[in-house]
Amino acid sequence: MSPPTAIVAVYAAIAAVAVVVPVADGARAFFALGAESTLPYLNPDLQGEKLLVGANFASAGIGILSDTGIQFANIIPIDRQLEYFEQYQSRVSAIIGDELAVSLVNGALVLITLGGNDYVNNYFLTPVTLRRLQYNLQDYSYLLISEYRKILQRLYELGARRVLVTGTGPLGCVPAELATRSTNGECAEEPQMAAAIFNPLLVQMIAGLNQEIGSNVFVTANTMQMQNDFINDPQAFGFVTSKVACCGQGPFNGLGLCTVLSNLCPNRDLYAFWDPFHPTEKANRIIVDTILTGSDKYMSPMNLTTLMALGSKEY
Prior knowledge:
By secondary structure, this protein is an alpha/beta fold. It has 12 helices and 9 strands. Helix 3 (78-96) packs across helix 4 (98-106) and helix 10 packs across helix 11.
């Protein structure tokens, strides 16, 4: 008996962890790969056979560091998500046995997206923060990468063998930053610099981790470059704007949350951003398509299609 393939998606950053068949920004990668979307791990309906499809451990607002996102209620920090992932495996073992459970997890895809919140909801949260007093931007980024490496090592220890790690987007170019930090509609310098520091360090760290393991367990997606493409030339991708959000208020519709009282565009497919922070579904599909089939300009050391074609390897 061979186990069903599951995908463990550790999804965070602007989130955290999930187990199923491909995940990206919630369920979009699932759709792209024809996979069933997973339930949140704490959903009471996640029982029996549904556990074999996977589980989503993600929690919006959390980050690499434990103090990121503490201003939000009821968040699930990444260390707790990893505990739930370990607990999940025990529950799967009770259904299909230890050996098949190990095979299922080894064959799963893990998507993890961390880092963006550590800047947006921590370092840059206010003009003066504890982290800004402790570290300059370069050293803070080194701290994040060092702590991120520990998280990825723990995932590997827990059986993850195919892990997609997405970088941060262009943090200074989202409508929220344009509304609060930009005077002329240009990307905000400091958050953009943070992303420009963090993402190359992430690629470098992943390459070193793969070398240490002796296999390309971890694959990185340069989502900053993917988004820069349609931010810099929105018309080439069928958007009328990459600065104004479809739903929001204030300059660039970049203030507050998207609510029933917000400005709402007539056609979201013409906008790169849905709300002050998040790309629209059309933009996300562009990102997911690039993750699936993109060149080494965007994916390192391979794209997701190539990764999923490889057999998982136990160490």
